[in-house]
Amino acid sequence: MSTALPVLFVSHGAPTFAIEPGLAGPQLTALGRALPVPEAVLVVSPHWETRGGVRATASTQPETIHDFGGFPRALYEIRYPAAGHPALAERTVALLAQAGFDAGLDPQRGLDHGAWVPVRHLYPDAQVPVFQVSLPQPLDPAGALALGRALAPLREQGVLIVASGSMTHNLHEFRGHGGGDAPYVAAFTQWVREAVRSAMRTGDPQPLIDYRQLAPHAQRAHPTDEHFLPLLVAIGAAAAGEPMAVIDGGITYGILSMESYVLGRFRPLAAQPVAA
């Protein structure tokens, strides 16, 4: 059996996920307890996009970035005091460079809410070091897949790769939604679930790369790509034939699917509500 840690795709939803765990939060916490303790967590988040190449955070103690506005004051008072891991950030940059990416270190960057919010559910005590890798711009789904493949060797080196995005992400509907779950959210989520299952079984991620043409309501679910791209990063870092588990986080605010995936082998707690 492989010693590689699994790869996670996590829908981080709205910033309020930090204080409103819903269905997904407790499942992430149970998963964090069930997994072997990693050397560090590497997060790819759409809230850090960089021009001129990929960057990795190299701070020894990354700050908690509150990169949002108009939310309850309690959110801005949260600090997630995990240490960074500059040595693993350097190793990551070397892997990215070997794969042909223009890669470098950022010693000042902290953790944006796409990183600290879901990782805070995984490791509430902040005992595991955390660092981030940016999404280079421009980037398309095929490029995100290549980014994940470049990061894959870190799984054998004690790094838990967390690709943090959102299964659906239409901000135009976020504040104006009239109530109830929008039907397109479930339809899009179900299509993606089956496409991920197929990609893990066959090793063919092309339908996910072409999701805009193939998935129902893709344009409405993702007016722009950046919150879907982390899923392609996760698929790239995973390997064909590895198992897949679904974390069914339900739908929040009627339009944000909180569906997440565990790609790879792990031994879940008996009580952990993660569906195969």
TrEMBL record:
Residues 37-240 form the Extradiol ring-cleavage dioxygenase class III enzyme subunit B domain. It comes from Cupriavidus basilensis. The keyword Ribonucleoprotein does not apply. GO terms for molecular function: ferrous iron binding; oxidoreductase activity, acting on single donors with incorporation of molecular oxygen, incorporation of two atoms of oxygen; zinc ion binding. Keywords: Metal-binding, Oxidoreductase, Zinc. It comes from the Bacteria. This is Extradiol ring-cleavage dioxygenase class III enzyme subunit B domain-containing protein. Transmembrane segments: none annotated. Belongs to the DODA-type extradiol aromatic ring-opening dioxygenase family. The keyword Zinc applies. Pfam families: LigB (PF02900). PANTHER family: 4,5-DOPA DIOXYGENASE EXTRADIOL-LIKE PROTEIN (PTHR30096:SF0). Its cofactor is Zn(2+). Gene3D superfamilies: LigB-like.
